[in-house]
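Quick log. Single chain, no ligands specified.
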Amino acid sequence: MLLITRSIILLFACVCINSLYAQDRYLLSTPSFDPGTVIKIQVEASAPDGVLLQQIGDEDKHGTMAVNKKYDLERKTLAVVDKKETKIHYNIIRVKTEVEVHYDGESAPHKNVTDFSDIQITGKKNQSDEWRFEVEDKRMNPEIESLVSELQAYENRKWFTNQPVSVGDSWQIYPAFTDFVMTRDLKKVETEGTMTLLKINKKGKDNIAALKFNAESKGWDNNVEKGLRKASFETQGLLQYSINQRLDTSLVITSRLESFVQKEDSTVSVVLPFTYKVTKSVVK
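-> predicted structure:
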């Protein structure tokens, strides 16, 4: 009888301890919205402290680079076709990019500004779960083509496991945008990333997940026409995700891009630290 009583007490103690340390689990899933839902997206990218070094023979040429970019977009979920294909529509309200390069000894910097608006882009997700984008506009140019590729890479990101997770859990992610930046110019690229759930905050009736992610990418290429090229791209970010809305409402990224090009007797190296801020909200 005494042995049974002790067993019951021990079992009760174990249950209490497990209850004390049990953690809530939360489903963080890839954003998905009903047809007609419109998301307003604002992006600010800033890189004011880029450093350049050009070497031709024995001569060194130092310089600086500054990049600023602003996006104002609307993303609308369109009707699903036969439950096999998902469509979205991007209204590019405005995208403005400013790049300034200044080498030592030059009287004035080299400036380049691109500014376009009212561009319509449609994306389709096929049965392989991949997005493909096309422009509903005849004003195609390299800047618009680059924007289409950026949006396609962003939509193809794989940040969530679509399985319940607890605070402190980490998992591997596919940072498609990081991979996109590298593979534009390099054939051999290795990219990896990790996401960690830091905490859950209450905001009214909503649960807001705070997450940290890290991504690193390295790549190289070598051919006769373009020479030897190498690059590395390191990124750290903080993400706010509304569990009720299934929407990543805020993203702040700090990154460092380093590139090196060598061709014949000349080399160019670039170090470009930058910040990237994204905010989203449901407008209807």
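The helical segments are 2-21, 142-155, 176-183.
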